[in-house]
Amino acid sequence: MLRPVTPASVPAGAPVSAVTLRRLELAAGGIAGACLAAMERRQPWFRKLPAALRSGVQLVTQTGVANFVGWLVATGGGPTRASEQPEPPEHTADIAVAEGGHTGAGSVRLTAEAFRIAPRDLARRLTLRQTVELVRVATDVLEERLPPLAADEDEFRVLSEAVLRFGREVAFAAATAYAGAAEDRGAWDARLEALVVDGVVRGDTGDELVSRASALGWDPAGPVRVVVGTPPSDHAPERLGELRRRAGRAGRSVLVGAQGSRLIVLLSGAAPDLDHEPDDLTEVLAALSLDFGPGPVVVGPLPSAHASARDALSGLRAAPAWPEAPRPVPADDLLPERAFSGDTEAHRRLVETVVTPLADAGGELWRTLAAYLDGGASLEACARTLFVHPNTVRYRLRRVSDLTGRSPADPRDALVLRAALLAGRLAGTEDKTDPP
């Protein structure tokens, strides 16, 4: 509470007389009540607030109105009356220090005090727009109630100007309070986001991960593609912000986590009722890759977030072995490089996607593919080795392409097929394709 105003407590050069200041102090309670009544009358949503929030607004309003007197003295409030221009006494500096070190600091302290003592839940439950509306209502009431308390016309003009300045200061104090709260929430969300990304990479499946993801509005059980690469080397905050905006414009949600020299992005996949990704996936991934740093960008498969992260990170480690890889590149397109780097999951995928379909179709396709690749991709040499016509080799190779989605005549596909043959031989699949 402010100390009672007396002539001795008012510094020389004050904008209004001690009598007027005392009137303002005595009227503070009634003016605060009038502000609350006006808020209820002019803002219908204010009447629907819970009692706890309404009491918080009342506390802020009462403190703000009570601080007007101190603010008026600390800032000068306006032009000093010509009849009150004596030399300042020696204790004026002490009063300024008591009010906050200097007049500027004192005014900031007084206008921000109301928001410092406000309940913490107030800034979370009331939007900045609603707070500005309440400040506008309170300023209108102050403009109506305060100037008539002036002793003469000069003080009336001073109080009118002071109310406008005080309302501006209160509005800036409110904006500062909300900005601080937003920064705190942003920092907390960033830490929570990093924890969720780390949990997905490590394969956490407990309730803690679900709770953290839900707090960010993310469904950890939904289909997720994990995109990995290097962080942007310049203007990282702006680039990551642009990455989020690109995903938002495409109707996707993302979680971003920077882990040292790698950037991990969790990109929401197709809706649960869809059997495949939308047609714009290629464009979305290409746009997101623009905000990564230099080097390869690898995309994990759907639907499991942890499996997608595991494959994408394995692909990122193996990507230097394929310098001509597109950007971004699917992790499944790096199966040979991943298998060579010791990824057992890549071995399994090669056997599952290439060897198993050929083995199920019979031993002829498997042996034809092996003879074709081992013979330097020559149709005639393969036909002589198998004692069949070259057209038979052509037919079997087309069947291999239909079953695996890989053409033996394409150099890159041939590398994948050869790696699959090696993986199948290591797994003992070749023995199963031999005729009885």
Give the ordered list of helices and strands: HHHHHHHHHEHEEHEHEHHHHHHH
Give the distance, in angstroms, between the N- and C-terminal Cα atoms.
99 Å
Strand-pairing-aware structural class: mainly alpha
- The number of domains: 3
Q: What does the average pLDDT come to?
A: 77
What is the multimeric organization of the chains shown? single chain
| Tally of alpha and pi helices | 19
- Tell me, briefly, the overall form: rod-shaped
- Strand count: 5
User: Which percent band covers the strand fraction?
Assistant: 5-15%
The stretches of 5 or more residues where confidence is low (pLDDT under 50) are: 5-13, 78-104, 271-278
**Helical content (DSSP H or I, runs of 4+):** 55-70%
Radius of gyration: 37 Å
Major sheet = 5 strands, mixed
List the strand order in the largest sheet: 2-3-1-4-5
